[in-house]
Amino acid sequence: MNNADQVEYWNGPAGQKWVDQSDRLDAMLAPFADTVIAAAALKPGEAVMDIGCGAGALTLRAAAVVGAGQGALGVDVSAPLIALARARAAEADLPARFELADASAFTAPDPADIVISRFGVMFFDDPAAAFANIRHAVKPGGRLAFACWQALSLNDWALAPLQAAMPFLKEAPAPADPTAPGPFAFQDKDRVAGILSDAGWANVVIEPVEQAIILPGDDTESTAKFMMQLGPLSRLLAAQGIDEAQVEAALIALMQAHKSPEGRIAMKSACWQVSAGNA
Ligand SMILES: C[S@@+](CC[C@H](N)C(=O)[O-])C[C@H]1O[C@@H](n2cnc3c(N)ncnc32)[C@H](O)[C@@H]1O
Questions:
Q1: Stretch 187-203: mean pLDDT, rounded?
Q2: Which domain holds residue 117?
């Protein structure tokens, strides 16, 4: 297993965009950190490992709850995101540390009480092998709690910008393999349950979380630009070399249609909150 495509992707322009937009991304994804932290039921003194931690927002939230002791360890393949996470931990003076590593092959220095993740576990070439490796980093009786997206069709925040861009594509995108590594690879909850049980996790519970996402940006123009830089639309724009001015105009119209009287742009999202135990 090598996950080479993802290592390249998250260390290239996409990783840098996540660094540049990290504050806005964290604001947008904060409700999902709340969901994972609530499901994790962390206790002071526990050792936590955050998989695919990115710039470390969830790791830092966990470190603030468990406090000193072993604290929280974030693991990620992206060098620019790990560098930002380390700087954030130092600035916040929290017991969090970060490793640049592929979680599917990583050997943790000490076993964790719990592994958590916010949208960082859907990128493995061989998910069952990766989750088996992750389980070996957890104490007997330890826990797993992560959030992953449901299908693109249920996530308007990602689907609507794609649909708005469709008229300007040079060719229709090939139908996506719903199990291919990527943000929506864990959309099928039965598949996720199978992966986890194949990896030796027990007591798997998968619950839907449906809520509105507030898109970042002070105005429709900046929100449109943000949505073109990140997520599925940015991958398509880069792959097809589309006229970005036309797409931006279409997205501004989309954002205006979703703007509330208070000026917020909210769209539907759906994810799974997954929990399991290392029996
Ligand atoms: C959608 S981002 C989520 C980042 C972070 N959890 C958050 O919520 O802000 C997915 C992250 O998974 C990381 N990732 C992808 N494959 C990985 C792997 N095999 N091992 C560790 N991290 C990985 C990426 O580098 C990226 O930072």
A1: 98
A2: 4-152+178-212+269-277
Residue 79 belongs to some domain of the structure: yes
Max CA distance (Å), the chain: 55
Whether residue 253 is contained in a domain is answered as no
CB within 8 Å of 185: residues ≥ 6 apart: 122, 123, 127, 148, 178, 179
CATH code, domain carrying 68: 3.40.50.150
**For ligand 1, mutation pick of 119, 213, 235 (most atoms within 8 Å of CB):** 119
For the CA atoms of 219, 225, 226, 229, the dihedral, rounded to the nearest 10 degrees, stands at: 180
Domain presence at residue 39? yes
> Which stretches of 93-210 are DSSP H helices?
127-136, 156-165, 189-198
CA atoms within 13 Å, Cβ hemisphere of 258: 26
248 in a domain, yes or no? no
Residue with CA closest to ligand 1 atom 8: 118
Q: Specify the pTM.
A: 0.96
Sign of the torsion angle spanned by Cα atoms 185, 189, 194, 195? positive
Query: What is the total count of domains within the chain?
Result: 1
Please check the confidence at residue 104 and state whether its pLDDT lies above 60.
yes
Q: Are strands 112-118 and 72-76 parallel, antiparallel or unpaired?
A: unpaired
Instruction: Please state, in angstroms and rounded to a whole number, the distance separating the CA atoms of residues 8 and 265.
Output: 32
What is the pLDDT averaged over residues 193-211? 98
Test site for ligand 1: of 78, 116, 235, most ligand atoms within 8 A of the Cβ: 78
Q: Answer yes or no: are the C-beta atoms of 226 and 215 closer than 8 Å.
A: yes
